[in-house]
Every structure is written in structure tokens, then in C-alpha cells.
Amino acid sequence: MARYHSTRHRGIPFRHALILVLLLALVGLLGACSASSTAPHSSGSTPTPAPTRRLTGTITEFPTPSSLSFPQFITAGPDGHLWFNEFSNAEIGRITSSGSITEFGTLRDTYEIDGITAGPDGNLWFTENRGTIGRISTSGTLTEFPLPPSHGSLDAITAGPDGNLWFTESIGKIGRITPGGTITEYPIPTSKSDFRGITAGPDGNLWFTEFGGFKIGRITSGK
Q: What domains are there in the chain, each with its CATH number?
């Protein structure tokens, strides 16, 4: 008698079915998260990312006519041009907004020039660090005012609220010079603190830095 072998469908093993169920649940969860993240706001609009702001700038450089000039400080002049000092050449430079440069030599050409600022009298004022305050008109006329003996090297200068110019001396003094050239010096309690920067403050006083004294100083202008 012929014998027949019956076949039986075994189905999917239990562990495979469990894995399939877990995968389907995971796919459903990811879909729900994606839908919630792109859902409209309560206002009904879909949020859009803020655009990235790119800052651009064009730089132009203008070489000074004199070599090794070491230009240091610069200020806006009353004539619509920029004025700067050349530290090693003892010259004052003027540059137009289009880049045309004119240089003016000082009377004491061995003195190094430091600070420069526009004065209340329509001139430019600067310091010669061996003890002279300089004034130059916008047409190039130069005048110099020597300090009294026992001065220190000069650094920064600024226009004060009282109509005068104020400057720093490294040995521990703050100086004031009138537009006519009268100089007054004020000793500061912390001597030899190597004064550097100075500026007019919003309170009508002058504020300065003591580089070696680790202090900020304030002096009244008398106005």
C-alpha cells in the first residue's frame, strides 16, 4: 500500500512575530513624533527657521608715503578728513575719505608723536612724548608748546568739556592746555603709575588710566 506523507504549515515562529510587532510599534511612534514636530502652531502657521544673517565688509588699505612711519592714532578732523600721527617719523598725516594722504613734518623731528585729537578751536592737537604739545591747523600750520621742566613722556590727549585739551604724563601728572597754549599740570596721588589713556566722561570730568598703578583715575575739569 502506498504511503502518503502529509504536509503541515508550521507558520511563523513566535519570536519572529514578536520582533515584527515591536518594529511596527517603533515605526508608529516615530511617525507620531514627526507629525507633532511639524504640526501648525496654535496660530495656524507652520514655524519657519530664522534666516542666517551674513555679515560682509569691504576693506581697503592705504599705504603711507613715508616708509616705517608706524601710524598709531587717528581722529576725525573738523575739515571732514581723518588725521593721524606717525610715531617714528614725527609727522602728522591727513587722509581724505578717498585715500589721498598728505604728511606734515613737525618742528622737533626727533620727537616721537603719540596721541592726537580734534580740538574745540578747529585745530588738531597732539603729544610729542619728550615734552611738547603740538597744534596743527587743517591747512598745515604748526605750533608747538614745550612743557615746564620735570615733565614725563606724554601719551594721550583729548578735548575736555571745559574747552581745553587734557593730556597724560607718565610720571604721574595730568596736564591741561588752553587753546592759546597755557599749560597747567596736576600731580596725581599715585606717582609714577605710568598714565596712558584719557577721555572726557559723561559727568563733565576727565577719566584716565594708570597703566602701572592698576587704577582708573578721575579729575574734575572745573566746569
A: 71-220 (2.130.10.10)
